[in-house]
Amino acid sequence: MHAFPYGTTATPMAVVVPPSLALPVIESAFPRQLHPYWPRLQEKTRLWLLEKRLMPADLVREYADGLCYTDLMAGYYLGAPDEVMQAIADYSAWFFVWDDRHDRYVVHGRADDWRRLRHRLHTALDAPRHHLHHPDSLVAGFADSVLRLYGFLSRTWNQRFARHFHAVIEAYDREFRNRTEGYIPGVEEYLALRRHTFAHRIWTDLLEPSAGCELPDSVRKNPAYRRAALLSQEFAAWYNDLCSLPKEIAGDEVHNLGISLIAHERLTLEESVDEVRRRIEECISEFLEVEQEALQFADGLADGTVHGKELNAAVRTCVGNMRNWFSSVYWFHHESGRYMVDTWDDRSTPPYVTNETAGEK
After folding, report:
1. Which pLDDT tens digit goes with each residue over 170-216?
2. Which residues pair with 5 in a beta bridge?
3. DSSP states of 324-343 as a string?
4. End-to-end alpha-carbon separation of the chain, Å?
């Protein structure tokens, strides 16, 4: 069971999915595609990580391609102009580096460092041009990627993106406090928080510059469009939780749907895994239904005007890419070195994270 005969990484190898994580419906009903710009994308994001000092040169050489961050994005935003695809891929790579920094701050109890970083990211989000040369490479890299994303659509889209990412930063702060205090959120509380820490709205917002069209509120808030977007993101977050559950239990983690089910619904580990899988499978089934409604809604926008034709094409592209997110996320979890914990020398510390990348001296 593999996406491409030998995956997408530079070192060819068959991609084997463990039976406990296999989803036959994804492998059969969600064919995987890659943006044709992908090889160049991988190369340029690698150079960007070096230029912005987000990873040391030796770690970029050894790990960047195998982490498959560009594969994940190139499997999602099909049809995006190359410039847009590159900006999204760089932003995504930054997001993973930020997530690692956040994790190290939690592990080492560095509350003051996290508080400073949180404040700087909020400020850089509102004024990225003024933070391009910030001494913290994470802040400077964020400013660079955000400024590029702000160049594709209108100020209204930029403000929406900023509003949504301010909420992501605050959700990361909530997770920081939960983890340092050992607080396991209830299931519904966790699901609401996860929608922000996984940046559901951000990845959905980025469908628009990929399609070359800023969608009006009447389109984005259409129930079928909105539900299809949410389901594609819920699948990604919950599948990530399923894949991460064993290592997060071993690490006394508190942020995982499975862990919330165990703590608050009194499920066993086995029952929890079954419940997460059930939710994932229901999510896929519901998407397949609402996808058709969203496409019918798109067709109804073609009212004979040029604007209607453009909206129809853009919405169909966005919905098609929501579908692509399922396969891209699924295979990413089985190709990326980010999830190959059993191969790490220290299961608590990713080999691609150093004191330098974690903001330490």
Report:
1. 999 999 999 999 999 999 999 999 999 999 999 999 999 999 999 99
2. 7
3. HHHHHHHHHHHH-GGG-GGG
4. 44
